[in-house]
Design goal:
heterodimer, A: mainly beta, 4-stranded antiparallel sheet, globular, B: mainly beta, 6-stranded mixed sheet, 5-stranded antiparallel sheet
Chain lengths: ~120, ~110
């Protein structure tokens, strides 16, 4: 298994509170991603990073921010959590490798409930 | 905007059957296509990756094909087993490669009956 650790694995928080999810990798991959998975929508890209301090928005970035101060860590922050952000959040990593494969590997997910 | 569709949404077959899962995408300018397996409450496990210049990839009882011009991929599972029961997801990476994320289908929920 790719060395990706997400924390926490489960969290319940109240509407309006800030929440930070952490993704830690031991693979030294350049690219890191945050997705959310919801019934009826599948997985959708929130934000991604292409290097330390280099990030960009994905399809569903409103209400989320990210930071990457070290290669191994990618943080996702919900500035003021809303019930619509109740979801399962997945971190992924990839690297071009020698053949430019860019194979993506996923963490185990964080189940977030906003009440 | 790229859209990925997986058919069927659900499939239930007896053990031992060979089966095919389908994936279609609207923009043929892709960098690669990846098939994943997801067990309930778990993360995604990469099964096969096909680069845009390739036609197929094989791993054990799994074979994935890619027809980029028609926007289609299939995942063939030979001699299915109850342990193959899971949701199978297809995802494409846009042609820019690099940082681009994946666009996913909604998956095929597969049940193999013992």
């Amino acid at each position: 298994d790719a060395g990706i650790t997400q924390s926490p694995r489960h969290k319940v928080t109240e509407t309006g509170t800030p929440v930070t999810l952490r993704c830690h990798q031991t693979e030294n991959h350049r690219y890191m991603y945050w997705y959310r998975q919801d019934p009826g929508h599948g997985l959708r890209l929130i934000h991604y990073s292409y290097g330390v301090k280099d990030t960009d928005k994905g399809e569903v970035s409103d209400g989320y921010s990210v930071s990457r101060s070290k290669t191994e860590d990618f943080l996702l922050t919900l500035e003021s959590a809303t019930s619509s952000q109740t979801s399962v959040y997945f971190c992924a990593i990839s690297e071009s490798g020698g053949q430019g494969r860019h194979e993506a590997f996923f963490g185990q997910g964080t189940r977030l409930t906003v009440v | 905007k790229q859209e990925v569709t997986q058919i069927p949404a659900a499939l239930s077959v007896p053990e031992g059957e060979n089966l095919v899962l389908n994936c279609s995408f609207t923009d043929s300018a892709i960098y690669n296509l990846q098939w994943f397996r997801q067990d309930p409450g778990k993360g995604l496990t990469s099964l096969l990756l096909i680069q845009s210049s390739q036609r197929e990839q094989t791993s054990g009882r799994l074979n994935a094909s890619l027809d980029k011009s028609s926007g289609r991929s299939t995942l063939y599972i030979a001699a299915s087993q109850p342990g193959d029961s899971a949701t199978y997801l297809c995802a494409v990476k846009e042609s820019g490669g690099g940082a681009d994320g994946l666009t996913f289908g909604k998956g095929t929920h597969l049940i193999i009956q013992p």
